[in-house]
Amino acid sequence: MWGSLGEREERSAAEYRSRERRQAPMSEVSVAPSAAEPLLRVRGLAKHFPVRTGFRGQSLVRAVDGLDFDVRPGETLGLVGESGCGKTTTGRMLVRLLEPTAGTIEFEGRDITHAGRRQLRPLRQDLQIIFQDPYASLNPRHTVGRIIAMPLQVNGIEPPGGVKARVQELLEIVGLNPEHYNRYPHEFSGGQRQRIGIARALALRPKLIVADEPVSALDVSIQAQVVNLLRQLQRDLELAFVFIAHDLAVVRHFCQRVAVMYLGKIVEIGDRVDIYERPQHPYTRALLSAIPDVTKLGPGGRIRLTGDVPTPLDPPSGCRFRTRCWKAQEICATEEPALVSRGGGQAIACHFPESGPVAGESGGTAGVTVEEVSK
Amino acid sequence: MTRFLVKRLFSAVLTLFAVSVLTFLMFFALPRDPVTGMCPKNCNPERLERVRDELGLNDPLITQYAGYMKGIVTGRDLGSAQGGHCDAPCLGWSYVTNEAVSDTIARVLPVTLSIVIPAAVLWLLLGVGLGMVSALRRGTWLDRLAIGFSLTGASLQLYFVGAVLLLVFVYNLRLLPVPSYTSILDNPVKWASGLVLAWVSLAFLFSAIYARLSRAQMLETLSEDFVRTARAKGLAKPKVYGRHALRAAITPVVTIAGLDVGGALGGTVITETTFGIQGLGRTAVDAVRAGDLPTIMATVLIAAVFVVLANVLVDLLYAAIDPRVRLR
Amino acid sequence: MRPRVVAAAGGAIALVVALGACSKNTGEGTTVDTGRTQTGVIATDPKDSQGPAAEVAGASKGGTFTIIRETPISHLDPQRTYSFAGLMASPLFARYLTTWKDDGKGGLVLVGDLAETPGSDVNKDCKVWEFKIKDGVKFEDGSPITSKEIAYGIARSFDPDLTGGPTYIQEWLADTPQFDTKWDFKKNKGSLPPGLTTPDEKTLRFEFSKPRCDLPFAVSLPTTAPLPPAKDTGVNLDNKPFSSGPYKIADNQVGVKLTLDRNPNWDAKTDPVRHQYPDQFVWTFGPTPDAASNRVIADNGPDQSALAFNTVPASLVAKVAGDAALKSRTILSPTPSANQLVINNQRVKDLKIRQALNYAIDREGLIKAMGGPTVAAPLTTLMPPSTIGYKAYDAYPAGASGNLDKVKELLGGQTPELVLGVSDGATEQIQGTQLKANLERAGFKITLRNIPDDAKLDEIKKKDNPWDLYIGNWAADWPSGASILPVLYDGRTIKPEGNSNQSYFNDPAINAEMDRILAMSPAEQGPEWAKLDERIMKEYAPVVPLFVDVAYNVHGSKAGGVFISSVFGYPAFVNAYVKQ
Amino acid sequence: MSLSPVEGVALAEIESGGPEVPERKDVVGRSPGRLAWIRLRRDRTAMVSGGMLLFFMLLALAAPLIEMLYGIGPKEQFQSLLDGFGMPLGYSGGVSGDHWFGLEPGLGRDIFIRLIYGLRTSLFIAFAAAVITATLGVVLGTLAGYLGGWLDAVINWITDLTLAMPFLVIALALTPTLVLRFYGEREAVSPAFGVAVLIGVFAIFGWTSTARLVRGQVIALREREFVEAARASGAGLGHMVFRQLLPNIWAPILVSFSLAVPQFITSEAALSFIGVGLSDETPSFGRMIYRSLDYLQTDPAYVFFPGITIFALVFAFNLFGDALRDALDPKSSR
Predict the structure, then answer these.
(1) Number of structural domains in chain D
(2) Is D2 a member of any domain?
(3) Partners of C470 in the β-ladder
(4) In chain D, which residue ranges form alpha helices assigned H by DSSP?
């Protein structure tokens, strides 16, 4: 199997190189299947944080360093990667909690990259965020009712039937007892709190929700409930999601498309099936191989990445993954691989992409169960 | 670090500049004429006017201010009524005590230092010690005693404590000499015995605050994960408490202590008044009462220098104790 | 647990506070005799001016005499000395042309100090005065004192840099209050002011264009202290004056401590009043009057030979007066410092109101509020009893606490509204509170207006000051009516600011009478001033006499020889000694 | 282990979706404030000290009523009950059925009623100053902490400047300067003016610690997710500050307020010690204590009554402040 993968990889690499020559510049690359007009269009998005180092001097942490992706209406895009790869920063830039250093963000065709508060106001209703920590994300001094009504209040929206009715409706939608309107967050469990956070995000009937690791802080048994709730909401309300997670299994369960990030760059993006079953970037493969129950890999078994993630203060030249990549060649150090579309909506940034499925047998629908995990 | 220092020092100089300007303006807003105090009984307006001219009090404010500042930097000629030439840093000539203000400061500053520094050592040792002990022995009679002590101290006032101590130890029991200042270089024993009451009363009141603060801080630190971890790892108690907990608990104490000491060095008026010792604080108050501008300026500026320096030092110390703090 | 702590702490405080006393105060033994009659003369016999001064009974040599005072002496430079502390300290290191021989009981004789006699009125018209300088008088460096150095001292008092001192001699010589422009000291160094000459080393001669009969008194002020021109350090002399007296400055920590050592070049044989008993005099500054008195009462170590220069504060009077053992360690004397409720005659023009104020006053209550008879003694005259020729009278007998019937009668049903300006210092605040209550009981409407303590004197010296009443105080520079009534009640002296005539009283008849008395010889003036005093009060009531300050000082068990100066009302040190 | 068990199980459970917390009958939740109140109610010390404070405040408020019942005003003098030196006759500074706490030496005013009025003045000054400093501190601290940047730098600098400013010089200089500005030369300066100036002096210098405290708290909160949630919803500054930030820091503000009040009470007393403050016409703790201290030996009762009252008042405030801190922040239990 590995052999065949290798062949395909050879070919694709050649193809990729030839394409690169034809299709510069980067931003012209179509990384999303050209279907409907995308809801969200991100090009060259970057965020650099200045930090002071040592006794003098200033350097930049390139937390996010040039991202391109689109999200179509009703689509769920998973953003995965190790901690510190820039996922969360990306998520916050999308809802404009952080000011991007470079690049553009377009929402429904409007450039919102540097829009002020006033200009953003109408957009706020369409663009919401769910936070990771269900404890920190709810104001402990407010009742659940106030928390959920906050976006309405802030935007001066008086829903038909009144705020209270709307809040209770939202509580019901997220599976909470509407009678708990007057309770305080500390009276709820983590899962319930996350539901409150979701209800708050839904209050304005958004079109796109950025979910920043929405379940990673929850108990394992609760994670499923929340993810299923999100999935149901997504279907019922035709929501688009940018779903940020480091947990590949959750992403696989929830997302239609997946982008893999490494050190502030997208290394691979594509449909769920493609990513999970035919990962082409070595890093994606390594990540997938780390899932314990997807160990039905061929020869080689689990890929262990050696070395630490390099510091974003001084990322490696060329391909950022090369320092930990078992396939790294000279070119990887000198030339940065571009994110190149490989048909079917999949795009990879690698000089030597892998090919072939990771675990053919386990493909298809969801396969991980609690029993399997606990092994 | 260098950058931090430069920035901090720049802001400090700016602060001092603002303080000096404000004090100058404040003085001239005062409905008080420093000159009238200089010739009592049968002074006539013409003569007053000439004295004002001589002292430069009729010059525009800016000229006077510039003159004063120039004196500090380069020295200046003050005229024969004010002791002639005055070398840099020239703080001017006191209208009231008839001496160069720098001489006044040289005399009263050691007094205030002698009151504050030993008192601060005492109150820090006592306060932090008490706080630690009562935190470690929480709930015991020792803890209760310490809490009682600190609450009482925090609720009493210096002039009250001072008056009672004076009455008991000096006037009635005659255990101590009357409070006074002797240079430590001349006679260390006299120096200590003359100031000990001031130290004790200052320390009593201040240590109360520090005991409360460090106890609370210590309790909080003790309940933190890293201390529990250290204990769980099997580190000996004294080592954990001494090295880990104390260090974490003392950080806020250092901040407050720095500011307190900085403030106190600018003058402990109440202490000085209660015990009849002429330090920086009383000198400042006397100068304001008498409308003695050069002395007001000098005492105010020195007090401000102490406060500002203390601020910078606290920031540095803070970083030294707590490596998490980054100096920006 | 914590409530118990409260109780315990409260208990502890209660205990400490109750340390003092719990006995019943029946009010017995709280009367004090402060009567003292003043006799004053100018010595006619040159022997009176010769040294040495009579030995003080029980005095012995040696030891350190300490004087504790709250605020420092404002000037040590004799030409700038005018404060009471300065005037009392100065004789220790400065000698003058004349000085007072004072028995501490009211007996005063003006004698020659550096001069052989208290001056001779050459033409008997008070215009030309001559002083002969004694032989054997020396500075601290052993150089002789001649008329030149005395003249130089007077000349430098013209220097506008050297503010603070009395200005009688300067104004008389220049015949104008603008003496420092009439004769510029700095431009004329080496020469002498107009009218002042030194015909020879032994003679000093004053020539005035008007009669100045009070000159012998005026030259008893430190203005006439000698100084060699070479030793003149200008303003710096203030911190280390050059001594001609029995002591010299050994060390001066300005504002903290002044140490005086014996001056070996002082010759007792030349000095009619000073002694040189203690090895050292030490003035220490800083302790509040309360602290100073407490220290001295405690009588501990060096404080045994100490004196609290500030009088015993009202808060401690009961303790000091009630302690028989302390009686021998206190000195009690009325002073020449007279206090009035000054009526601004420019504003309160109705004589009846001024008289009603005089009838209304509750002197007993006021004195009680201030701390009783050891703090103040009632006064009904313009001049204090310590004035030469004084005669007691009460023009408006108000009884101890006011005669309300008389007030009602004089006011005739109206309620005068008056503004009383008081300083915001502690003492005047109490006096103001007391006076307001007192006068309102009597039917006035009083508004209290606070004036910043340091500014009050300057403010009420302004002619157009806005207040109707204020508390005024005058302590004469010599105990003659000439230094009181013309200064305070001669309306021709009123100027825009800096007035001593704070009642702004001006009556041509009175002014003329003052001119008449001033032309008389000093010895004859006394009874005339007393008569004028009574006349002014009876006919015009320009002020309400309130009280004279009483000096009540406590000293250590080993301090001796201190008495209250009959001239200034503060402790004098010329006889002071330390008991061995 | 950290991997998600989402699939499978989840689907089964989602329908039940019920809350993990057992159902409660009451649907109105207990706010954190209410919980703190409950804890406070259970604290005996808090209740005792709080009761004392309430008592003091009632006394202060009811001063005119008490004067009516007691029958003696704060300015009335009883000099006939003093001896020649002005000391009160009888036992313990003139304590009697008519004069419960005795008489002042000298002026002979009734100590009890003056204490009541003094309590009124001092508590008013302290509360007003504490309210103003807290407000100033909160506003400046929030602005500095939340907006950051140059505003933070400027406010920090002003804080440093305020700390370096000569408190005493300004306190000494302010009253006479302002009196001249606001009053005619023959007008009595109303006691309220002196009170206002004192409050002003405290306000100028007292806000820094609250500002620093609030700034620190706000900086800590600024990055919290619920604040970001509000920002992501487009909340403006007003909403952020008043709805999101302040409700979360009122606990430390309240504690610092409760500890600031006794500080101002003692500061008023300390200021009159060096001659700054109210005129004799306005009864205040500061002036009473300052005057009485001199009588420690001759009339201890005069020191005792004001002394013990101010001690008890400040002590009660400190106790209550501590208890309040414990109640609001159970972590830092004593």
Answers:
(1) 1
(2) no
(3) C342, C421
(4) 9-14, 32-42, 44-61, 63-70, 111-142, 149-164, 167-182, 191-222, 225-232, 237-238, 246-273, 285-293, 300-328
In a domain, D144, yes or no: yes
Chain C contact for B164, CB < 8 A?
yes
Domain range list for chain C = 336-550
- Provide the pLDDT for residue A237: 85
φ, ψ for residue C248 (rounded to 5)?
Answer: -130, 160
Closest CA in chain B for residue D320? B151
**Residue B276 to residue C288, Cβ atoms within 8 A:** yes
- Given B11, B157, B219, which is nearest D157 (Cβ)? B11
| 3-class DSSP string for C323-347 | CHHHHHHEEEEEEEEEEEEEECCCC
Mutate to test the interface with B, among C181, C235, C283 (most CBs of B within 10 A): C235
Instruction: Give pairs for C12-17: CB < 8 Å, separation 24+.
Output: C13/D304, C13/D307, C13/D308, C13/D311, C14/D304, C14/D308, C16/B164, C16/B168, C17/B164, C17/D296, C17/D300, C17/D303, C17/D304, C17/D307
- Whether residue B19 and residue D169 make contact (CB cut-off 8 A), yes or no, is no
Chain A residue with the nearest C-alpha to that of B2: A55
Check residue D126 and give its pLDDT. 92
Q: What is the tens place of the pLDDT at every residue in C57-67?
A: 888 999 999 99
Task: Closest CB to D19: pick one of A131, A176, A370.
Answer: A176
Q: Which of residues 262-291 of C touch D (CB under 8 A)?
A: 290
Q: pLDDT by residue (tens digit) across A31-51?
A: 444 456 788 899 989 888 877
Domains of chain B, first to last: 32-90 (no CATH), 103-325 (1.10.3720.10)
Contact, B116 vs B195, CB < 8 A? no
Domain boundaries, chain A: 23-255, 277-374
Check residue B19 and report its DSSP letter: H
- Whether chains A and C touch (3+ CB pairs under 8 A) is answered by no
Distance, in angstroms, between A310 CA and closest chain B CA?
22
Tokens of B295: 């002395």
The correct CATH number of C336-550 out of 3.10.105.10, 3.40.50.970, 3.40.50.1260, 1.10.8.60 is 3.10.105.10
Domain assignment present for residue D137? The answer is yes
Instruction: Extract the residue ranges of chain C whose pLDDT is less than 50.
Output: 1-7, 15-22
Contacts of C311 in chain D (CB under 8 A): none
The answer to whether residue D270 neighbours chain B at the CB level (below 8 Å) is yes
Kindly report, residue by residue over D116-160, the tens digit of the pLDDT. 999 999 999 999 999 999 999 999 999 898 888 889 889 989 988
Contact A193, A142 (CB under 8 A): no
Whether residue D87 is contained in a domain is answered as no
Which pLDDT belongs to residue A362?
Answer: 39
CATH number of this structure's domain A23-255? 3.40.50.300
Of D266, D275, D296, the CB nearest to B157: D266
Contact list, D165 vs chain B (CB under 8 Å) = 19, 22, 304
CATH number at residue D175: 1.10.3720.10
Nearest CA in chain B to D312: B155
Chain B: touching chains (3 or more CB pairs < 8 Å): A, C, D
State the residue range of the domain holding D136.
36-73+117-328
- The tokens describing C401, both together, are 């606490």
Dump pLDDT digits (tens) for C158-212.
988 887 888 889 989 998 878 888 898 888 888 999 999 999 999 999 999 988 8
In Å, how far is B139's CA from the nearest CA of chain D? 8
Residues of A in contact with D21 (CB under 8 A): 187-189, 192
Q: Cβ distance B40 to C82 under 8 Å?
A: yes
Closest CB to D5: pick one of A139, A140, A224. Answer: A224
Residue pLDDT, tens place only, B106-141: 888 999 999 999 999 998 899 888 888 888 887 788
Confidence of residue A327 (pLDDT cuts 50, 70, 90): confident
